Amino acid sequence: MMNTGEATSSCLADAGPKLDCDDQNSCTIDACDPDSGRILDPSVQDPCDDGNFCTEKDACIEGACAGVPVECPGTGNRCIPAVCDADKGCVPTPKPEGSACDDGDPCTETDGCASGLCVGKPIEPC
After folding, report:
1. Which long-range contacts (CB under 8 A, 24 or more apart) does 37-41 make?
2. Separation between Cα atoms, residue 33 and residue 49, nearest integer Å
3. Where are the beta strands (DSSP E) in the chain?
């Protein structure tokens, strides 16, 4: 697939002996056509890095770098799940106080997060 971009002054034949047509995109192969002054940037299919910690297996697709969303592993705490931050990756993020949860105890009800723990009201008798 070949895309033809707009002409830039650095790509024109009269811009000097060294033509600079780098579009700063690792997913394109940059080339200048001195006759038309156009930047030709055919897409490549190479691995790349999209700079997003929430994706993995990044690859060039139609001239853009994209990845598959990561699935954050569990933290072992229902009230402090790992949530992905594009700049940091998976980080433990407390749920708001009172958020619904399941403490796994059949002898409790109305379970909710309190100070980072999942607690429920005891059921009588149990």
Report:
1. 37/7, 37/8, 37/11, 37/12, 37/13, 38/4, 38/5, 38/6, 38/7, 38/11, 39/4, 39/5, 39/6, 39/7, 39/8, 39/11, 40/2, 40/3, 40/4, 40/5, 41/2, 41/3, 41/5
2. 28
3. 31-33, 38-40, 55-61, 64-69, 82-85, 89-92, 108-114, 117-122
Q: How confident is the model at residue 30 (pLDDT cuts 50, 70, 90)?
A: confident
**Whole-number Å distance between alpha carbons of 77 and 16:** 63
Residues 57, 102 within the same domain: no
Same domain? 14 vs 64 = yes
Return the percentage of the chain with pLDDT > 90, whole number: 56
- Domain span at residue 108 reads 82-122
C-alpha distances in Å from residue 34, one per residue of 8, 14, 17, 51, 85:
11, 8, 11, 33, 44
In one letter, which amino acid is 21? C
